[in-house]
Inverse folding.
């Protein structure tokens, strides 16, 4: 599986709006994308406005498909001007769970 870890630094005056619109992207990703196996949105408790995304996809092409979805397009059009610094992305390959493990977990990621 292909995974990314993204660090985002959001303007502090946009925190509430960012969290609200990001839920739509996260929910759309796990609900509507069969090649998205994980989409976590995390907030740094020590740095106001810092968020982390952990996303797992079947492969890099699945991430490109994600970026073409309506929920991502809406999210990006809304938030792209709200970042204080460029987004930082780390690309990874998963080791555990196995690919079959990720696939078995997928139906449970929509229990919000």
């Amino acid at each position: 599986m292909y995974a990314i870890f993204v660090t985002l630094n959001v303007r502090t005056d946009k925190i509430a709006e960012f969290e609200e619109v990001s839920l739509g992207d996260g929910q759309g990703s796990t609900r509507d994308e069969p090649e998205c196996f994980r989409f976590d949105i995390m907030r740094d408790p020590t740095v106001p406005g810092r968020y982390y995304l952990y996303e797992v996809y079947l492969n890099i092409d699945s991430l490109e498909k994600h970026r073409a979805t309506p929920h991502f397009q809406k999210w990006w059009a809304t938030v792209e001007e709200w970042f204080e610094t460029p987004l930082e992305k780390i690309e990874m390959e998963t080791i555990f769970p196995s690919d079959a493990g990720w696939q078995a977990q997928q139906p449970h990621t929509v229990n919000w």
Summary: The chain has a mean pLDDT of 95.
